[in-house]
Amino acid sequence: MDERNGDCTFPEHHDDLPAFYPAISETESEHDCLKDFLLEPPPVVCQPSSVTGTPPVVAPAAGEQQTVGENPSETVAASFQSPGVESASSDKNGEWSPSVADGGGGGAGCSERTVSSDCVSSEPLYSPDAVEQVTGDSAGEPAAAPKQKAGRKRKSGESSRGGSRSNSSGRGAAKATYQSQISPDQNGIKLRIKKSVVAPQKGRKRRSKAGSTADDDGYVEPLTQSGWGESLPKPVLCKIFQLVARNEGCIPFLVRMTKVCRLWREVAETPKLWRHVDLASTWVRDPAKNDLNFCWLCENRLSHVQDLNLGGWSFVGIPRVLDKMATTCAELQSLGLSGWQGLNAEHMRFLAQSCPRLQRLDISSINPVHNSNKASAVSTTSLTGLAELMGERLTHLIISNNKLSGVPQIISALATHCPNLQVLDMSNVMTVSQSAGALHVEKLQEGCPLLRVLRITNSQLALAPVSLNEQALSQGFPLLEELSVAGVLDGLVSQPLIDDESLQRILKHSHKLRLLDVRGCNKVSDSSLVRIPAWDLEHLFLSGCYVTRLNGSGLELIAQKWGHSLVEMDLAWSTATEALDAAVMALAEHGTKVLNLCGSSVSLDPVKAVLERCPLLVSLNLSSCRALPRGMKRHYHDAGIAELRLSFAKDSPASPQQ
Description:
Elements: H1 28-38, H2 49-52, H3 75-78, E1 87-88, E2 91-92, E3 118-119, H4 128-138, H5 156-170, E4 176-182, E5 191-197, H6 228-231, H7 234-248, H8 253-257, H9 262-268, E6 276-278, H10 290-300, E7 307-309, H11 318-328, E8 334-336, H12 345-354, E9 360-362, H13 380-390, E10 396-398, E11 403-404, H14 407-417, E12 423-425, E13 430-431, E14 437-439, H15 441-447, E15 453-455, E16 461-463, H16 468-473, E17 482-484, E18 488-490, E19 493-495, H17 500-507, E20 515-517, H18 526-530, E21 539-541, H19 555-562, E22 568-570, H20 577-587, E23 594-596, H21 604-613, E24 619-621, E25 635-636, H22 638-651
Helix pairs in contact: 7-9, 10-11, 11-12, 12-13, 13-14, 14-15, 19-20, 20-21
């Protein structure tokens, strides 16, 4: 939802374009700092009796934490503090493989804007050993050594092997989807696309070695710190924080800054810095206290928020939460509600009426399995009513990973009432009926001329048949920058149903196109690709297309047309050896940065040419390339590419001048 996570507009799944930014690693202490800062309770005051007397023995209930001398009047305030957690996420390389076309519907395309993470473990704030130490010191007695459990100590190798077996046995098959990320702003659009899994696997918590000093090598902590940080004027420090928060997001950057000193904490708490907040992770989520925690956040942290992502949250009382959000977040412009299973049409109507500045909305994964509830937030009645209420305000609408009915009515409502629509994401959309949903693209072109991003990846959609006269009168999408129509083969047919004619109908007059994804479209040939009016394409994904399987095709001509501007190209699983070698040689003449040749029949000489003539190359995927020598069939990144260049330079014979 916001541009700092890279990724889109909604902090994206959808990988489908931006920027998307390098991930920031979080440690356990930073998790504790985050929950202390966002959900900080009043300090707990211990009763004198609990210090001088015998420590009380309290059996905590399930899901609660054991406390020492807790004041009953402060129980409610202290309940806002959530246990520390560690998050882990997993993703895969952005490549298309025929092996995923097994009917699961997850080979080539989804654009989700959320960044998923799983809660691994939580630790109590107090332990019995800590209680004994506090009481022992207060009574003037030495602290007792912690007791050890009796019994044979298990070897570390046995525990690790047992854990790996349990994880592998209980792990379900993950559905692969394509993420698209977009970050529209005043300076342009940032694009990026990658492949990941919908349900990240839970990782095991690993303890760091006690004797490890890898992070401390070469650095000595000074005895006294300089006062330059405390002497900086607050306006200057606030401006610095604002620039970083705009690129990386408020969380966890501003939370980390609060640990430096009191001055930095005061500046980090400035309300105008908290404009773009992503709470889609599990850092501050506690299913039993979500309602109270979020209401507290709205009153104390989110009063000036503009972009808010609440993907994956679950609430007992959704109306109460939405009412608090509409009351306290008066400047809200972008809202992410991905995965809210209980959201209905009345909730959407309330948001549209109570949030006058709301422009961007993410309601993906509301009901990805079935759409039996007519009052669902993504039902035909709800979406058409939302388009009528928001009207010209609506600029971004993400309804991916849902099962919809009445697709023609939804498209007609958007074309009629939303002339300022810029982003429409309908990736991974299934229809209630067995037939594909009709997408009237000419009507959408006429009603939404400002559309910049259109994603129908891996969706059960097809372009509605229209007369030739209506096709000729259509002005197309003159501002379109991204088109994602990647599909998965289901027998001899791919979804969405895109061929040369459909591609021409969508991309007519689209001179500003910068990303084109047609992976898995087995009916798209080189004739339609060459006739695309755009001349500065930067990201091109062709794996699984018909053009990559036919010798004598125009693959070389395509590489020559956009070679001067291409930053990333995907030619995975290409079997036309001659055409592929010629295309790779054409790309070697320009500054390509990312090249995916996984599973292709590329020869060794074109690969050498790319390594020698592309100094900006940062990613080269040669996995499963059967024509290459053994030992080099893998995915190379920055350091690996440098080593591969060096190995080829050593093996090449020296010239007579040398």
